[in-house]
Amino acid sequence: MGKPQITVSYEPFQEIVVLEKNYFSSPEELARFTSIIAGGKLAGLYWVNGVVFLYFPLSSSTALVAKDLLEKRKVYWSYLGYAIMPKFVSVIETKEKIIVPLIDVSSDSVLAGVTDWLKQQI
């Protein structure tokens, strides 16, 4: 029995629609916000090219969102919070000793496009 033939293709999102965005004055403010919305559970932030951010995708369980995803490669984010952070560090620690880990996802071209757009919003 041989290996099945499989085709792999890459079709990145064509559009991300942000329904709400909030600019934080510092990475520490974003870390505080992240800690609060996570209810004390460990939550992390993303970093790409000088921007630290957090986003919440809208569930694709509704028919319209699923249709847009499949037909238009369009996704919706219900919330996007961000701050400028020129240099990557592995954690942000606030004066209240809240520690939030960061993940460098600079290699993701879609998220790099998002951070390019965010820099233009400031």
Helix content: 25-40%
Kindly report how far apart the N and C termini lie.
58 Å
The averaged pLDDT comes out at 91
Beta percentage is 25-35%
Structural shape: globular
Biggest sheet record: 7 strands, mixed
Quick description:
The chain is α/β, with parallel strands linked by helices.
Describe the structure.
The radius of gyration is 17 Å and the shape is globular. The protein has 122 residues and is an alpha/beta fold. It has one domain. Strands 1, 2, 3, 4, 5, 6 and 7 form a seven-stranded mixed β-sheet that branches. It has three helices and seven strands; from the N terminus they run E-E-H-E-E-H-E-E-E-H. It has helices at 27-37, 63-72, 109-121, and strands at residues 15-18, 21-23, 45-48, 51-57, 74-84, 91-93, 99-104.
Write the layout of secondary structure elements.
Elements: E1 15-18, E2 21-23, H1 27-37, E3 45-48, E4 51-57, H2 63-72, E5 74-84, E6 91-93, E7 99-104, H3 109-121
Task: Tag the structure with descriptive keywords.
122 residues; alpha/beta; 3 helices; globular
